[in-house]
Amino acid sequence: MSDVSKKISNAEQEIMQAIWDSGSAMTFSQIWKSLNYNTKQAMQTLIDRLVKKGALKQEKREVYYYTPLISGEDFARAKTNELIRRSYAGSAKSLVAALFEDNAFTPEDIEELKKFWSTESE
């Protein structure tokens, strides 16, 4: 897992998600409007932390723009690997079994997974 992924808190992840969802660099004001955060100072602190951690790049134009330095897909993959390692003793099979037992998959999900696995094995 990326060291950066390990360091991102849940609150910081919300900011990252807003930027990932936008698909482009965002200003503080744009992030603020998309999240409707409690206080501007709290959000600025989280953004500053993300910059220091190497998760966001800060670029000065007419105002500061923030761009993610880690993709949402890479972050999710790293977090999933961490979950498997910590909660399922490194067994992805155990994670999938738990999801099946909890009926987390719809019949459509199962069909998509079957197609995925059949194309992966070719």
Would you give an account of this structure?
The structure is a single chain. The chain has 122 residues and is mainly alpha-helical. It has two domains: 3-68, Orthogonal Bundle (Arc Repressor Mutant, subunit A), CATH 1.10.10.10; 91-122, no CATH class. It contains seven helices and three strands; from the N terminus they run ααβααββααα. The chain has a three-stranded antiparallel β-sheet with strand order 1-3-2. The protein is elongated and about 50 Å long. The mean pLDDT is 91.
This entry's quaternary arrangement is: single chain
Kindly state the percentage of residues in helix. 55-70%
> β content, as a range?
5-15%
What is the residue-averaged pLDDT? 91
For the record, what CATH class of the largest domain applies? Answer: Mainly Alpha
CATH arch. level architecture of the largest domain = Orthogonal Bundle
In N-to-C order, the SSE pattern is HHEHHEEHHH
CATH superfamily placement of the largest domain: Winged helix-like DNA-binding domain superfamily/Winged helix DNA-binding domain
Distance between the termini: 28 Å
- Rg value: 18 Å
Biggest β-sheet, characterized? 3 strands, antiparallel
